[in-house]
Amino acid sequence: MKEKLVEVAKQAMAMAYAPYSGYLVGAALLCADGTIYTGCNVENASYGATICAERTAFSKAVSEGKRDFTAIAIVGGKDGKPSEAVCAPCGVCRQVMREFCGDDFFVYLVAADQVETMTLAQLLPVSFGPENLKND
Ligand code: THU
Fold first, then answer.
1. 3-state class percentages of the chain: helix first, strand second, coil last, to nearest 5
2. pLDDT per residue over 99-131, tens digit each?
3. Which one of the listed residues 54, 64, 84, 99 is annotated catalytic?
4. Which residue among 2, 50, 52, 81 is buried most deeply as judged by most CB within 10 Å?
């Protein structure tokens, strides 16, 4: 499934709208039920209104009723090609993953010649999440 997710993320990269940075990002989010949601970055002339590929994928999935996720593959680069360095999710996207995913959620960081596998716990240790807001 890792290979499939990586392939789908690369395809999603082609949909990126990134006229300002020129850095295209694609994501493929695997749901527990086996479905895959894609995402790409969608930039905006008001730069802060940009949404990352990962959050696009999560928003699509959650808005269609999905809440259980297994893994995500992320790939980014200029000229539509995966970069030499892996594309790691930004801090905001890590926090959005934290909202819906457990410590063992797999994040596949894709580069031109390698795929690095990490867990959400590794990417966002000592985190703040929904359970912090529950009553004791
Ligand atoms: N970007 C993503 O889509 N995901 C990340 O995790 C890192 C950054 C996008 C946002 C912006 O459109 C471009 O990459 C450059 O920051």
1. 30, 25, 40
2. 999 999 999 999 999 999 999 999 999 999 999
3. 54
4. 52
26 C-alpha to ligand 1 centroid (Å): 9
- Helix H or strand E segment including 106: strand 106-110
pLDDT in tens, 49-102: 999 999 999 999 999 999 999 999 999 999 889 999 999 999 999 999 999 999
Assess whether 7 carries a catalytic annotation.
no
* Local confidence band at 136 (pLDDT 50, 70, 90 cut-offs): confident
Residue 79 gets which letter from DSSP?
Answer: T
DSSP string, 5-64: HHHHHHHHHTT-B-TTT-EEEEEEEEETTS-EEEEE-B--SSGGG-B-HHHHHHHHHHTT
